[in-house]
Amino acid sequence: MEDIISLSKRRGFVYPGSEIYGGMAGMYDYGPLGVELLNNLKAAWWKAHVYDRDDFYGLDSAIFKDPRVWEASGHTTGFSDPLAECKKCNTRIRVDKELERIGVKADEKMTEAELNELFDANRDKLPCPKCGNKDFGPVHAFNLLVKTNMGDFTGDATAEPVYLPGEACQGIYLNFKNVVDTTPARVPFGIAQIGKAFRNEISPRNFLFRTRELEQADTQYFVKPHENKEAYERVKQARWDWYVQMGIRPENLRFKQHDNLVFYASDAWDVEYNFPTYGFDELEGIHDRTDYDLTQHSKFSGTDLSYVDPQSGEKYIPWILETSVGMGRMFLAFLSDAYTVDEVNGEKRIYLKFPTALAPVKVAVSPLLKNKPELVDKAREVYTMLKKEFGAVMWDDNGNIGKRYRRQDEIGTPYCVVVDFDTLEGDTADTVTVRHRDTTEQQRVQISGLVNLIRG
Ligand code: ATP
Questions:
Q1: Is the pLDDT of residue 337 over 90?
Q2: pTM of the predicted model, to two decimals?
Q3: Distance between CA 276 and CA 3 in Å, rounded?
Q4: Which atom, in ligand 1's list, is nearest to the CA of 284?
Q5: Cis amide prior to 355 (ω within 30 degrees)
Q6: 102: Cβ contacts below 8 Å, ≥ 6 apart
Q7: DSSP label at 56?
Q8: What's the count of helices (H) and strands (E) in the chain, helices before strands?
Q9: Does 165 sit in the ligand 1 pocket, CB within 6 Å?
Q10: What is the rounded CA–CA span in Å between residue 271 and residue 453?
Q11: Hey, which residues does 136 pair with through a beta bridge?
Q12: Which of 32, 44, 45, 393 is 20 to 30 Å apart from 378, CA to CA?
């Protein structure tokens, strides 16, 4: 993971947030290559969940919501992680995660009393990560919602806060009726959204894995009450298949069922990814949420969110099957899976084995020599043509060809095109060398065939 973090910084994938001010815990900025990878992941996810489906609708809901939303959802009272504070240096730990780390089964859904009992039984194995002392205070539930003063011009500290979303999916529930009323959507159908969420994580850690600002790609699939089981299996399988289709190695994925369900859920599984160094951990949650969300919002808002079947006239609150993945965790999983080390001509080579659809740069174009105007002019022509087609094309004329290839390998560019003297005349006129990232093989290709070759 250290190598991946270092490459991310060095090559402009991910920078620590507010770095010039010394950094800010749990915040990261995506650099020029990172934003390309992030956008490609979002586009691939959107394609699979909106464009490739007849029964899905897209949404982009506002970040700020009526504060009652978070009461109805249970976040103001129940959205907490168990916290203990070191009495010596005030470092705060997230108790369930620390217990899990030493092999004790625990999770944030346990009661305060249960967690205190487990923590007390294991205190001798849990030194403070900062000062090493084993002198923590009691465990208490810490609410993760982030408060703001949006719309409050009174300066009154006791005024009801407007929260930042603790999870992005609430916007989907709020717009369920709007989507039914304004589209051909009929149960069963789904709504997909990629939206921001904010959590006052006690200990943001592990790079992009646990951040305080995150983006969640969510689908909520609305089904008839009790018609959830079969659909849930399909939703679960589809998410697994998507990861594998997008190039994640299946041996790095596994499903894990939740032992401890929230009171309203009827089933919950995580897709776990085998993160380097950290090991298997939650990548995505797949939850069978019954009718909880729409029932709660009907109750709290006073708006009936029942669905009326247009054929049978039957009226009911649909049940919801949810998939939710953090884009940062997805980014980290894809980056980790693509990170490959091999040996070429006795030299260690690092390359990112992204499928072309995800690669931040699709193709790099070089003139063999940068001081030969005839080569540069021709290479510019090829570059402009490819840039019009693919956008994410890089001009690279720095250093010798071998160095350029290594540089492109390290950012996952699948193709390098080189314009040489053979491009300019003779039988080989208007052909270029295309070098393939994974095999390092080179082939001679007509310039007119480049677009199709890269498109694959
Ligand atoms: P965890 O147990 O790791 O805190 P969670 O069970 O609270 O996660 P959910 O509320 O189910 O997570 O959120 C759905 C998804 O959002 C997670 O599977 C994960 O991909 C992502 N996610 C949640 N919290 C964070 C975070 N702090 N940073 C990055 N991604 C997150």
A1: yes
A2: 0.94
A3: 10
A4: 18
A5: no
A6: 122, 125, 126
A7: E
A8: 15, 23
A9: no
A10: 34
A11: 86
A12: 32
